[in-house]
Every structure is written in structure tokens, then in C-alpha cells.
Amino acid sequence: MTVELHSLIGPYALGALDEDERDDFESHLDSCPTCAEELDGFIATSIRLGEAVAAEPPAELRAHILAAASKTSQERPTVVALRPRSLRKRIPGLIAAAAVVVAAAGVTAYVSEHQQVQDVRAEQSNVERVMTAGDAVTSESQLGSASMTLTHSPSEDALVLAVKKLPALNDQTYQLWTVRDGVTSSAGLIDSSDLVYVGQVDGVEQLALTVEPAGGSERPTSLPLATMQL
What we know:
Elements: H1 3-6, H2 9-13, H3 19-29, H4 33-54, H5 59-70, H6 84-132, E1 137-143, E2 146-153, E3 158-164, E4 172-180, E5 183-190, E6 194-199, E7 206-213, E8 226-229
Antiparallel strand pairs: 1-2, 2-3, 3-6, 4-5, 4-7, 7-8
Helix pairs in contact: 4-6
């Protein structure tokens, strides 16, 4: 096996070889089990990446990912000049290395997005259990044109709060709180229209909704806009 032919595994898997290079590599592939095994790995990775792209995540996932990306600082790329005489010899290796980097980055992105999809599905399952529980109790309240629907299931030790049409905020956020034995704890930030699952609510006496600075607060900084009794 020559180093030059072995380095063509990545470009071959990506369909980046010309006809002569492809014929030479395929002839070599018939007699090189090592290359054949590595090629299978490239193809398997491509299939997994294709499946990741084909999966249709929930609409909320795309919004969360785009929001996170907009807050992530981007570093300027480092550009390194290559000597012209050595560039041609290095092209096959560079292409193969690039293929490995792309595959690794794709797998990492797939794992991250797959985990987020799993988290969303788990929360959806939790919501369904509360909503269909035999002991679920639902109550509603109005806040101007906004509405809040609370569903509480003692057997699931959880509640689901559906909020609709709260006025949009600038540089502030809505935050939900639980009150248990006089102690107020954050139950998370919510949007103007949202569906919130809160677990481990045994002993919680009340929910409170406040307006807080962007990013939320450790403790309420304003009077509640609304409260709901469990």
C-alpha cells in the first residue's frame, strides 16, 4: 500500500477524484483490506450524517439553536500561506484531512442536536402524562388579554402551565416562581406564549409570574403580575 493511494480514501468517499484516480484507487482497494475497512467507516459516517439532516426536529429546537448561535462569539480564522511547490503534493492529504474534520464536526453536531431533540421529546412526554393523569385538575385565569391555564397532577408530582398572549417585552423577561412554605424559587423563564412543565411540586402552594431583567433573577425583583393557587 502506498501513502499516496491510502490518502485518497477521503476524496474517494466524497466523490472528489477524477476518473483515472478513481480507477487507480479502486484497483488498490481490491487488494488492501485496511483501506476497505477505513472506507466503510467513512461511508457509515456519511450515512449517519445524512440521517441527522433528514430528521425533522421540533420547531422550538431550531429557534433555540439559532438564539444560542447568535450569542456565541465567532473567532477570526487563522490563514496560513502554503509554498506553491509543496502545495500539489499536499493536496491529497489536505483533502483527506478535511474530510475527517468535516465528518468529526458533523458527528459532534449530530450528537448535540440529537440530545436536544431527546430532551424536547422527554419534556413532551412529561407534559402528556400530566395532562392525561386521572387526578389532573385544571384552572384558568386572565391577565388582561393574556390567559394562563394551570394543570396540576399530584400523582405525577408535576404541573403544566400554558401561557398565551402575554405582552412582548423589551430587554426584560417573564419569570415563573414556585412558593413553598414561604420560600420563592425560580421555575424558569417563559415567553409571551409558552408551555411550561414543572416537576417536583409537592408542597408548592402557589405560582407567581413576574417581570425580570433579561436573563432572569435569582429572586423576584418586582411584584407578581399574577399568582395561581395549587
